[in-house]
Amino acid sequence: MNPHFLFNALNSIQQMILANEDIVATKYLSRFSKLLRAILIHSDKETITLKEELEILNLYIELESIRFKESFHYKVEVDEDIETDEVKIPTLLIQPFVENAIWHGLMHKEGQRELTVSFTEEDEFIKCVIEDNGVGRQQAAAMKIAAGNEKNHTSKGIGVSRERLKAMRTTDGREGDIKIIDLVDASGKANGTRVEINFPIQN
């Protein structure tokens, strides 16, 4: 998890208190403490159940939604046939992609902002799709450079995630993988990003 998130979260709590938004600050602090507890409990594990990952993911997205004044809409959908308390996936592998979608895709976009995270089961794989309707990777990269932040940890993070997925295989030896798709509208203009992560099912 990005260390900046922890700093920004604490700073947000401080700003809420200074603005006399005590109820919102209390709600935020409660969820923030739950998220930190979950991360500390699971951070030293190679894998966790999908149910545990979903708990962390929902807490994280809710915190970002509160911090950004509910300026984006989101939904997390899970196929009802998936046994979330049985399926195991690499710990905290999904959250960085969701963080990237929010910080670099949605927060630079004007108008309606949408984030969807979905989980389906397909042929011995759990497919996680993270889709946003943000500014797209090219514009996000250009804005990073303009802001003087040319260090790109994203590609390294993707490489590490791919290596972690390679350690997991289906019963017939197929590896997990990650696909990143640039979305465009009817006129060819950037219209967000779609990340597809395929986890070999491991019970």
Can you walk through the features of this model?
Helix 1 (3-18) runs antiparallel to helix 2 (22-42), helix 2 (22-42) runs antiparallel to helix 3 and helix 3 packs parallel to helix 4. The chain is of the alpha+beta class. The longest helix has 21 residues, at 22-42. It is globular. Strand 6 (177-184) and strand 7 (190-200) form a beta hairpin. The strands form two sheets. Strands 2-4-5-7-6 form a five-stranded mixed beta sheet, covered by helices on one side. It has a two-stranded antiparallel sheet with strand order 1-3. The two termini are 25 Å apart. The model has no long low-confidence stretch (mean pLDDT 90). The protein has a single domain (3-200), classed as Histidine kinase-like ATPase, C-terminal domain (Heat Shock Protein 90, 2-Layer Sandwich), CATH 3.30.565.10. The protein is built from six helices and seven strands. It is 44% helix and 24% strand.
